[in-house]
Design brief:
- It is a single chain.
- The protein has helices at 2-16, 29-41, 45-58, 63-75, 79-92, 97-109, 113-127, 132-142.
- The protein has 144 residues and is mainly alpha-helical.
């Protein structure tokens, strides 16, 4: 009987020390980006925007959260905000192909074909003719 109590006592001390606690989520950029995508799937656009902004706080020098906000605003019919965030992504990482693609598609949506073609030229210099972003813009320019 004494061994059983010693084992229970040891497990109790071990658990109290936190060693048996469930793994806590790591709050980093990846966590917030994933949570934002989940929020969008659930239709929580306000929550998604806040989570993208939290990702920016954790990684202000990564263009991805800015890009994601730009894409969100573009799909939500807010082209001015989309353009702002695509441009911030480019400030963080110049010639970032996904942001250039985003700007080109915004230009086309506004009827600014020359602007879209200028973004396409920048994409050609940034990543070449075969990169997916260039291909997507060329497809949009040709109307396919």
């Amino acid at each position: 009987m004494r061994r059983k109590w010693v084992a229970v006592l040891c497990v109790g001390v071990f658990a109290a020390s936190g060693a048996l606690r469930a793994a806590e989520p790591v709050l980093d950029e990846a966590h917030f980006l994933k949570a934002a995508e989940d929020a969008l799937k659930e239709g929580d656009e306000t929550g998604a925007v806040q989570l993208y902004q939290s990702a920016i706080v954790y990684a202000p020098s990564d263009p991805v959260p800015y890009l994601k906000l730009g894409e969100h605003y573009a799909s939500s019919g807010e082209p001015e905000l989309a353009q702002r965030y695509f441009n911030i992504a480019l400030d963080v990482q110049p010639a970032y192909p996904p942001a250039l693609r985003g700007l080109a598609l915004l230009d086309l949506a506004r009827g600014d074909r020359a602007g879209a073609q200028a973004q396409r030229e920048m994409l050609l210099h940034a990543c070449g003719a075969t990169c997916p972003e260039t291909t997507q813009v060329e497809k949009a320019l040709s109307g396919k």
